[in-house]
Amino acid sequence: MSTPTKKSINNAIINAKCPQCRAGNMFKHNWWQVTKFAKFYQHCPYCNLRFDREPGFFHGAMFISYAMIVAMVTTAWFILYFVFGNPAMEVYMYTIVLLNIVLLPIFFRYSRVLYLYAFGGVKFNSQISKHSK
Questions:
Q1: Domain segments of the chain as ranges
Q2: Which of 25, 58, 127, 128 is such that its CA lies 20 to 30 A from the CA of 46?
Q3: In terms of C-beta distances under 8 Å and separation of at least 24 residues, what long-range contacts does 22-26 make, across chains too?
Q4: Among 54, 53, 61, 49, which Cα is nearest to 19's?
């Protein structure tokens, strides 16, 4: 397993890497693999950090997911209203439903990633990333 050359927090979040070593993946498969996008490692394959900090830890990620969906709905409404001239209500409904279906894997994954980084109590440890595997 190769160590990333740049260990910035932004790259680690975007690539869904472990918050402690920023090298191990948090998810087993890519987000576009529709039937497998939610498969989550229990421990980091690089440094062995336990991702699920306590039972039910990721229930809090629902609030981040909710905020993402609210932002998506608001953005879609603004674009439909101001760019497309306030189309029929059915257009709003179909657009929101379609966007929710298409963006579900992304919202699911990044709500977990952001929640773990924000509330997991895990700090980056450069010594672990240098000495593991």
A1: 9-131
A2: 58
A3: 22/124, 22/129, 23/47, 23/129, 23/132, 24/49, 26/51, 26/112, 26/113, 26/116
A4: 49
